[in-house]
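Hey all, sorry for the wall of text incoming. These are the two entities for the joint prediction.
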Amino acid sequence: MNERRNGLKEKITNNQIWQSMFRHGYEKTGRRYTLQVLQNVWLHLHPPRVTRHAINFRFTWCMGGITFLMFLVTAVTGVLLMFYYRPTAEYAFRDIQYLEFDIPFGMLLRNMHRWAAHGMVIAVMLHMFRVFLTGSYKKPREFNWGVGVILLLVTFFLSFTGYLLPWDQLAFWAVTVGTNMARATPVLGHEGPFAPQDIVTQANDVRFALLGGTIVGPSTLLRFYILHCVAVPLLASVLMALHFWRVRKDGGISGPL
Amino acid sequence: MEYFLLLVTKPDNVPIVAIVLLLPFFTWLAFSQGRRNDLAGTPAEAALNDKVYCWPYLCRNEFLCAIITMLVLGIWSITIDAPLEEPSDPTITPNPSKAPWYFLALQEMLVYFDPWIAGVVLPGLIIAGLIAIPYIDINPKGKGYYTLKERPFALITFCFGFFVLWIVLMVVGTFLRGPGWNFFAPWKEWDPHKIVPLTNVNLSYLFGIRNEQPAGIFGMCVVVGYFALGPIYYFLKRGTSKFLQELGLVRYIVVSFLFLTMMSLPIKMILRWTLNIKYIWVSPWFNI
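and here's what came out:
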């Protein structure tokens, strides 16, 4: 049996197609384990080896990885949702209804996108909690902690911009309440302290810049759509690349030595 | 009670319920490991310091974790539908109007502070303060392992901010705030006509100051005096405290400012509940 299995393995791995794809065999040696990580674009963010406590769920909680996974899920489901959604006041709500009732698995698609987004917020909070409790922000990881804090902010903003897109009462008023705060920005908001009167008005303060109007309206929908689908995911991706790279450069996952 | 149950089982509030259940578990997980490390004297991770290959050992765990997460997400997505209410209508304002759940701690702060503080300055300081943590925490211990006794101040401050000022306020804002943003206990029915007497007064009024200008000066003194507590303590203690000398003046001022700002929220909350204080400092430009 064992011989047959080995023979099969040999057949699969020892040919031109396999070798062109993976550039290494499948023997059980340390060399191959190393090559497996180094020569794979998806795995090469890992070091060849990690300390043993780094694979302990009790220690790591896996929350950073789950955050990233949730981001990937929202990216994939988000692209699929974009096929069915038009960010205009006339169509947005109808497109969601159409998605829910007429498109095969449309409801499931929407659910996965929404719950993955919420899951990402939960996971990112727990990730931060774990990193704090293990003191993993300490030297030499100070800078990467800061990048992480910005990523937390970006996660909130991604979720918040997406909240408006269904264009229902829930979305409209949640975003109205949220963006009303910008009115009170000191100096830059028209109701904020130290705002120069007649210069900073309802029609040119930071809230106007965010909404593209004096109330949440069609231009807000378009603005939030573009922020949600293009600008913020790009920013998040750049920051995540930086974050992961710094994890490696700062010595991998933190440990007591 | 049914209002409360309706709220708790609302699809969009599932994440809050999840967080309320997950946090005690993870807190227990972290603190039990911290206690174990403290009792043993050396962190358990120190014994696990030999290296293992990422492939297959780490990648296997990551894969396992991804499968379980996708399973949970799949079940969540099949069983609970994302909410969709009536089409948006700027002329019909729901009462209460609430921000998304992760911003409800900020919305809850609006009860105690004006929007420019609760909605702009405090969130900004939360972010700035979080980024500043590694630079102001000079304690070299507790790096890379769970511990309780080696960094008590850092843990207590962070957990207070996270649990009480973020999670509890979020839960209160989501589940216990009804029409008019009035407080409703879980067993109370949401009454849109609930009348709450507006008996709040400014701090200066309690001290018998009735004129605008002296009241403003009094309020300024209170606020400036509150934030001066930090530096005053520094100059009194710096001769004898080795910790303060190591921390240095600049770091100390940042720490004390952030800490006092954080504590100003619970202080203002308690003042509101007990003495019905509206503002500490009323000025022509802003109120605190």
